[in-house]
Amino acid sequence: MGKITAPSRFYFPLNGANYVLGVEMAQVSMDLKRTDTICALATPLAPAALAVIRVSGANALSIRDRVFRSHRGQQKDFMATLGFVLAPQGEEPVDEVLCTFFPQGKSFTGEPSFEMSLHGNPNLAQRTLDALVAAGCRLARPGEFTLRAFLTGKIDLCAAESVLDLIGAGSEVAAHAALRGLKGGLSERLAPVRHNLIHVLAQVEARMDFPEEDLGSAQVDDLKHHFQQMKTDLENLMASASMGQRLIQGARVVLFGPPNVGKSTLLNALTGESRALVYDQPGTTRDVLEANWVLDGMPILLVDVAGIRPSEQADPVEQMGIEKAKEELFKADLILGLAESVSPTFGFLKSQLETWGVDEGTPRIWLRTKTDLESPNPSSKEGIGISAQHGMGLDALQEAMREILCLGDAQSDEVFLTRNRQKEEVQACLQALNEAEQALSQGWADEVLTSEIRRAGQALDRLLGADLNEDVLDKIFSEFCIGK
């Protein structure tokens, strides 16, 4: 098994010496040969107007010349050229295609690459792949093109994850956020932290070289200032994590209330579709019903659960539905609590949430339903009054959801953490900075201080992909489709 080396993002010169935060070069062991030239279909293997095949690797140019014959003679870099794909061991054309070659350093992967656009017949696509394999290509593994872009330094690991986020984006806003990550937004956001880490490490290393010179109060205050600045930057980034995950995965909004309160009617009204069965007999919804909805560009999963009532009043099937409802409430990003305006039962619903131990930090919006039947002087005006059947109060509900889900932030140019791996590394960096700051304040040995600073740097290295093991890379890139 060979070694693959990814350049560290934290190598820097200082006073003629080389200082490294983390490691100089990250050695990543992978069970594949980067000397192989790989190929894959980048579009679904199904009838379509077009199919696209990608090829990347050191031998891409010679392989292209074996399988492609241009109608116009010599092909220029970056120029789409019309010609034939030739069958293996013969001159028989497989298809007439457009072929575009990208030289080393100027392609997505950073390697010599070319793409072929052919007619979208699955048989033609398969025969073209067969010709490429016969000419010396290996079929690519899932995510291998993006992996090579990472390993050649074209993108960092966070940008590679943004490729996956962009492919799976469920809305325009989510796609825009993923594109910011792909363009290196997270690396730019971390640049001040990197700069400050370099500064504080240099200061402490210099003192270790001249132990007879103690740090003055001004130097200690300067170091504390830089520690605080780094922690503030990272804490602000951590605060973006929930928004980032909502953008990519969607916000999970659970509709919660007693039977026949109008949960299914509300779900249908919000989505504009008859997704849920509506009937005037209580207990119609026994299972969990999910519907996708988009609010101001934020993908939202609406979850309609069984009606909640005291267990002694529920039959066995209803009780099973209530158990599933409890499970959904623990996963919710937002709970919509519904009670009929003529006889609000918010107290019962609140006590149920408390009894079940649902996180008090999960935001709730309380809704009085069927307000078209409400008396002129209702006994309670708690919550937002709505009539989903007549569209009353839905604007007020959506405005409350915008505020709680911070949809204004989603449409900004902010950079978000979108994955648990990213959160864990930022948290590890914060923890190391806290330990370093404590070591400074308590006057501990400089070796302890430098150790914690380097530990913070190593966390940033891992975040951007400069210090990773094979298992982490395998897990990340296995989520990609073949051809990306």
Q: From the coordinates shown, what is the CATH architecture of the largest domain?
A: 3-Layer(aba) Sandwich
Main β-sheet description: 7 strands, mixed
CATH superfamily of the largest domain: P-loop containing nucleotide triphosphate hydrolases
Output the radius of gyration. 29 Å
Counted up, domains total 3
Strand runs, count: 17
Gap between N and C termini: 24 Å
Q: Which residues sit in consecutive blocks of at least 5 with pLDDT less than 50? A: 1-33
What characteristic shape results from the CA principal axes? flat
Chain-averaged pLDDT: 82
Number of helices: 16
Strand proportion, as a percent range, falls in 15-25%
Query: Quick one: CATH class of the largest domain?
Result: Alpha Beta
Biggest β-sheet: strands ordered side by side in the sheet: 7-8-9-10-6-5-11
Summarize the amount of helix as a percent range: 40-55%
Class from secondary-structure proportions? alpha/beta
The CATH topology assignment of the largest domain is Rossmann fold
